[in-house]
Amino acid sequence: MRKSFIAILLLSFCSxxxxxxxxxxxxxxxxTKAGLSDDLVVSTINASPGAYNTSADGLIAxxxxxxxxxxxxxxxxxxxxxxxxxxxxxAAAVNTNPDDPNADHEPGIYLYDSAAAKNKMVGxxxxxxxxxxxxxxxxxxxxxxxxxxxxxSVLQGxxxxxxxxxxxxxxxxxxxxxxxxxxxxxxxxxxxxxxKDCSLVRLEVNGASxxxxxxxxxxxxxxxxxxxxxxxxxxxxxxRPGVFKVTLVxxxxxxxxxxxxxxxxxxxxxxxxx
Length: 274
Hints:
It is built from 6 helices and 14 strands. It has helices at residues 2-20, 25-33, 38-47, 56-64, 69-78, 137-142, and strands at 108-113, 120-123, 126-128, 131-135, 149-156, 163-164, 170-174, 199-206, 209-218, 221-224, 234-240, 243-248, 255-261, 266-272. Strand 1 and strand 2 form a beta hairpin. The strands form 2 sheets. Strands 3, 4, 5, 6, 8, 9, 10, 13 and 14 form a 9-stranded mixed beta sheet that branches. The chain has a 5-stranded antiparallel beta sheet with strand order 2-1-7-12-11, with no helix packed on it. The chain starts with a helix and ends with a strand. It has 2 domains: 2-78, no CATH class; 108-272, no CATH class.
């Protein structure tokens, strides 16, 4: 009876000591050399936190110090006591706000309208020129080539779908991943990789269509491509790879406009209203 009481007292004392400090190999050796039974030492190991060296050298040292196989098995069961790995950091929230220029967008050109009741990003629809026509041929002939004859690309529709009353809108260009395809309706590397590969031109309304001069000829010579007089200059800055912010050098008068990508024969059109 007395021995049982002493054993219970020793076990309580060991638990109290261990509660204050985690066990390790040295602690177990001290308990063993103090004369505690294997059952008491195993109970203490199971009831207490611990950080044990369970390498081959660590186990050999325990055995040489007189620790029994039963106690060593309890140590192996409890493990090394190494702290659990830190949880993986939570994935960053994805910005899906379609009116935020910093969010990801489908490749294309977007008008950022800050003059609206609420800042709004609107994608410009890419349109193709349907045909080309000449103008001023008779006048050029009668003046013996002094007056210019012009070649114009024709865009169907008298007005663009996207409209704004802001005469100084901001645009964002989102270029897609690099591709070998050159007839994609979206912006892509290879054909156009920065806004400098595009021209902002004013389109001339002619009945139910809009026109852009792409060439002229007179006795003084001929020229091809978008005419400088039709262009509106702009500045741009790189926001991040493949994304550019475009701002106008001067306000746009009311009218029809488009960013022309001549390599594709496409124009991203919009209109400025009074």
